[in-house]
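Session log. Operator J.P. requested a structure for one protein chain; no other inputs attached. Running the standard single-chain path with token output.
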Amino acid sequence: MSLSAVIPAVIPAPVSLASDASAPAFRLSASTVIAGDADAATALARILETRTGIAPAHADADVAGAIALRRAPGGPAESYRVTVEAASILLTAPDAAGLFYGAQTLGQLLQRDGTGWSIPAVSIEDAPRFAYRGVMLDVARHFFPVETVKAYIDRAAALKFNALHLHLADDQGWRVQLESRPRLTEVASGSSVGGDPGGFYTKADYGEIVAYAASQHMIVVPEIDVPGHTHAVGLAYPELVEAPVLSEHIREIVREYGGDLPTTGVPYEGMAVGFSSLRIHDEATYDFLADVFGELAGMTPGPYLHVGGDEALGTSAEDFAEFMGRVTSLVADLDKTPIAWHEAGSAEGLDEETIGQYWGFLTPTDGMDEKARTFARNGSQLILSPADAIYLDMKPSPSSALGLTWANGPTSLERAYTWDPVAIIDGIGERDILGVEAPMWTETLRTLADIDAMAFPRIAAAAEAAWSVPLGTAPMRTWPSFRERAGALAPVWRSMGVTLPASDDVSWSAG
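Structure written below.
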């Protein structure tokens, strides 16, 4: 008997799930009513209609045979409880997010039942392991329109992610309109990797993304990566940047991936990193950053601003330390919590509230772990994004036409799943970890179909690392269980418009 015949297909794995195969299921029909919380009812109705074509009506009060959605005290933030019986379904949660996540679980439980649809008899208690559960989308290397970003939000929210990190600026282009610095989009937004068209989000576009994310219980974390990754800034404001530092490392990347060497004042369309830098000792640089982060803070209701700080190979160690101290303090003074990539941990004077984002390997190299430990020593926390596990742009197999392999790649689904956040960095325990984030860099990606091909099913593995109990501590939290549950969810993902890639690890259900 397969696992899927015993364990309903839910990802991420709940804290507890009891099912009774002998008990009758709840049958969905045109007369089904969703009662209770209006926002959660709207979310659940959308899920059910997308999956089945049935659009349940909403009632403010409970009615017989209804799917009841209720706020109930008790339990941690974002938690929920579900009881499914033949006659009714009861979903309770202490907050709106918990009801939303319970609705996502009900959508995953939905299955074909002859010519109709049903939800099996189950009892679920669930809560997230980590407070921060993110996905990152790089819109700088290739630009993606608002509708694509919203589609990615849908995919992530369905897996209980609650943060969208947008990488809004890099050497190849600047992607968000700012009234304080209009030349950034007038001059520096038109290019992408490989000579593809660029683009940018107007302030209205950005507001639409933020509002849509909020409707799916996700915050937006905007990133302006400094002091490196700033060649595009120099197109608009050349007085703020240094000349490109053309190391042998840069030349090797150009030889491997093609394109031209970066040239001052010329849009950069290649894939090299680490050659650019802002001018660290010029006060005009900090005036610029005050404008950029100040305006972005006003456009972003979430608590975080990401300042980058990675791969600043064109900046000396001393200058980097001075710069990161100033920029993280600047963001903190805006009443936002700064986030920086783990390299910033080498900088003395870093604002003590700064959250570190670790992009190093499952087995740290080159002092990555020591830099990451700085954030915990400062009394702050880490976001774990091990590149050789959950960088979703790494090739999933050697034959993949998309993706890169620099992070010990290709990265199989099994490797993406079989790691645990507390096992990466010595001395970093559960309390030191704010959460988990799965980045998607887009040097080789141009469309939503490309994004889906790289994200699925590894994004589901990242979701389980972020939400579920530690690996191996529950029957569902194992590799064999996960691969079967992932395969069984194929109909759910297809109903969302995802074209699932061929996989050596997963047999996709046709149901």
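Operator note: Residues 283-299 form the longest helix (17 residues).
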